[in-house]
Amino acid sequence: MKKNIFLGIILFLSVQAAYAGGGWPQPRGGGFFKLSEWWVISNQHFTDVGKLDPNVTTGIFNTSLYAEYGFTDRLTGVLYFPFFSRAYFNNTVSGTTGEVITPGEAINTVGDTDVSLKYGILANGPVALSATLTLGLPLGNDSGGSAGNLQTGDGEFNQLLQVDAGRGFRIGKVGAYANAYVGFNNRTNDFSDELRFGIEGGATFWDGRLTAILRLYGVQSLNNGALPSELSNSTSIFANNTEHLSYAPELAYNISDKWGVSVSTGRAFSGRLIFANPSYSVGVFVKL
Amino acid sequence: MRFTIALSAILLLFSGCIGDDVVFDTVPEAVRILNPVDSIMVGSTRQFEARYTNNIGEAEEQPVIWTSSDAGVLAVDNTGRATGLAAGKATLTAEVLPDGKAPVSDAIEVVVSEDEVVGGPSAERSGTIRTTSSYLLEGSFTLREDGNDIVLEFAGDYRASTSLPGLYVYLTNNPSTVNNAFEIGRVETFSGAHSYRISGVGLNDYGYLLYWCKPFSVKVGDGEIK
After folding, report:
1. Burial class of residue A283, CB neighbours in 10 A (0-12, 13-18, 19+)
2. Per the CB < 8 Å rule, is A233 touching B6?
3. What's the CATH fold of domain B30-113?
């Protein structure tokens, strides 16, 4: 109940790294599947006043499957499933004696999972508009380790309603797109609700083989949850009242018409109660 | 085949290993007289005790050399047992000579009086806590004996951030680490006067209060106990 300070953000960043759709639903029978590894190793965090403070080095690794499948031309099912999630923190060692003061620990579990339905409101016009309902299933561990402060989930069931608007266009011979979204995340278990927002732009080069994407996105807590931070054991990314404003460049390379690989990184311009180190992601994807 | 290679490469990445975070936790060696008094009567005796703490603030058995600045006023033997011999003042010193290191000592001034002792053992210490992080932490405190316990009392000027998870307060001789520290308990009051009753600890056993965030495993603030 009270052990979730910074997790919401990890899932958010992970999904962002795997994002495929934007305002565009998949065509009927079409699909996008991505196997990826997302991780962050952090030794500092943004405090409640936005400054940087150190913390014991903590790592979170998510090996996940992201899938989109078009049930109809307008209705797409989306799954984000971190089937292997590892969280650890380092040993704390005396610089004077070399003895271990606090031994490090690790947990390996399934992570919190998102199941979504995306509906294409405007699919054929110049602007693609879609609405997505995401259910955040708390399948991860929100109180692992001897002190209960290792987490692969936030322990709460959340519902995110998001609207995306996207438009494709050309810059000379280069195909490009832009997408924007805003969402409201209703969180349970006394977590504060959130506003989520972002814009992204992408351009495709080398006969469609290489796509470069830049995302700017953020989370704003409504600070309406009763969960007190001071009585929790949570550490950065599974927290309550987490906020950040971040950017994430990504490169996706199409090896063939169906297969491709991607790399991305996410970094925060500013934040509150969240890890301050960059996250990274690599993945391999296939399109139906 | 390509998928298998890519999958193998990805799976290798999730094996994030536990490493070491090194804490710079060296403190000066110290010796402290644990049961000081202001005065004793002529003809009376008192067994003084001293504790040596090493360069990580850990209590360690070491021979203590007891001396008096005026053996005609206050005599002391090599176990720390002192006897008032004549009216006057003397400085009682406890000194430790750690192997290969500079000597460390603690000293108190003792009045030897023909009259009944007016000033009893020092029964209260005090200090001010301060933040060493970006999180709010401030206020003054006193530490006093109460029967066999000691009581840590914070004044009305105490304030601490409510944004930290798992904030704990400790007594320690090394303000850089919770190693060898005495855990008083989890912080549950974040403003105003409040107190903790502590058993099994002497008034002069520790030199600092330490505020520590357990989940982040970092120091939040401290306060020297004077």
Report:
1. buried
2. no
3. Immunoglobulin-like (2.60.40)
